[in-house]
């Protein structure tokens, strides 16, 4: 369970998040919807420790993780598949995946069955198995996206952050990404999902929050938001 309370975040002196509160209950998929520049990626970065919040609090499974380094937050059980993928271009696919399991290999986090989990990631993404020795930088955009998701899963996370997993992908791969998100949901993985395809995100999510200019303008169960006239007009039109 992830709980964000009154989070403020800034780049230098420019505040981007003006006090947002979001709850991601265990086993649920929660989506954050908003236009470009609303602050979705900043929210994800503040949660995973890539930037330090100005104020507010973030807790994971009841433990306060506010202001911790990203490596400690990963050890606490939070994995982040970042916008733009950020795979290690000069390392093979398998090494990228094992780096996701690093806290488990160094006993920062319970080890469990790392090899078994690697096998499960390869089952989920057969393309990655075919290319397991290939350098990540030479993968296609879609394959790099699968790798970023696979690497995050290798933490065996309590909470998974997915920031625009379908960005830049061909339509067929976009549906594949959503198929995988539902599959992960079926496995009971707790997720916070940011997606440009808001309608598809609301279809897979249990609950949604709308972020406008760094503030939550409304939130509710996903089927309720899907039918909200204002949300429909702003985010679920033909262009989305
Ligand atoms: N590294 C950065 N330095 C300064 N400003 C940034 C940086 N990243 C994002 N911003 C600004 O923060 C705001 C929110 O951006 P972002 O969180 O990326 O939005 P979203 O993911 O919703 O599109 C935007 O105004 C953006 O220009
Ligand atoms: Mg973004």
Describe this protein's structure.
It is a single chain. By secondary structure, the chain is an alpha/beta fold. It folds into two domains: 1-77 and 158-240, P-loop containing nucleotide triphosphate hydrolases (Rossmann fold, 3-Layer(aba) Sandwich); 89-157, no CATH class. Helix content is 38%, strand content 25%. The chain contains eleven helices and ten strands. The chain has helices at residues 40-48, 70-75, 93-100, 102-105, 114-124, 126-130, 141-153, 171-186, 198-204, 222-226, 229-235; strands spanning 2-11, 14-24, 29-33, 55-60, 63-64, 78-81, 159-163, 190-194, 207-212, 215-221. The strands form two sheets. A six-stranded mixed beta sheet has the order 6-7-8-3-9-10, with helices on both faces. α3 (93-100) packs parallel to α7. The mean pLDDT is 95. Residues 11, 16, 34, 36-42 line the site of adenosine-5'-diphosphate.
Brief rundown of the structure:
By secondary structure, the protein is α/β, with parallel strands linked by helices.
What's the SSE blueprint?
Elements: E1 2-11, E2 14-24, E3 29-33, H1 40-48, E4 55-60, E5 63-64, H2 70-75, E6 78-81, H3 93-100, H4 102-105, H5 114-124, H6 126-130, H7 141-153, E7 159-163, H8 171-186, E8 190-194, H9 198-204, E9 207-212, E10 215-221, H10 222-226, H11 229-235
